[in-house]
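Subject line: Sequence and fold of a protein, written as structure tokens
Body of memo: The sequence and its backbone structure tokens, given next.
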Amino acid sequence: MLTIHEHGHQGQPVQWTKGMGKPAAPIWIDLLDPSEDERRCAAEITGLRVPERGDIVSLALSSRIRTDDDAMYLSIPYFADTGTNHAAPVGIVVTHQVLMTLRFEASPAFELASQSCESHRWESSADALATLIEAIVNLAAKRMEDVSADLKKLSDRIFTPARLGTPALRNCMLEVGRLEGEQARNRSSMLGVQRIVSFVRAKKPEWMSDDVEVRLRVVDHDLRTLDEFDDQVTNKLQFLLDASLGFISTDQNHVMKVLTVTSVATIPPVILAGVWGMNFKRMPELDWTYGYPMAIAAILLSILLPVLFFKWRGWLEGD
């Protein structure tokens, strides 16, 4: 899909169709998983080379962020802003006349940036680029806040006076893993954006206005703040994971304690039963009138006494 934003067409982006004429004053060309015809059209409109997907995902920094004459080629190899596991690269080419973006997945940030032209008429391609970056960062901040809110709920679930069983704690650990994965995707996306902002600010081409430079400076500050917030969220995730493992270990220790008490309490009756089960000719207990009930009572008493002793020492507390 090829979407075209033009100068003076406030709030009216045009979706390109085959046979459509060349736009008069394009300011933002947005390619979403484009076909060959759409790529060829974008190249004709902008006079720029449309990057291939392999160029965007290349590990070499020189391939991801570079300048070529008047154009700046920027890319985010791992971009995910939908809150799902789907991540796809994003390529950005910007000149003093036009901004061209290449992406392969739908993005709420791009939709938000596109909608912003309804209230803000872009003065230049740099203005459109700043708007796009601001939308990406704002949505990333919102996702991090959502992760932080979910962590608060998860913390309340884990640290409760009621005793949780191992299955419930395992579900909490799975939730920690899900939130950590979402935060990792946010972190990867923001790392790519931060490199772009730093590069553009360092180059600061002549056609970039001071107003755009100020906006990028604010975005750079926001990214640093989000980086600190990411550290806090990551530490909280690690803390909740350790807490879940600690409660599971404590729960298992309770089980082992009960089994230990049970095994210790059954040793005396086993000994008594073993003694009275001996086959000797002369055993005084065989002639006792109440020998059998007395033996049963002694066995029960030998079970009860260790349990009462453990209870008195507090070793059964919580069980």
Notes: The radius of gyration is 35 Å. The chain has two domains: 2-250, 266-313.
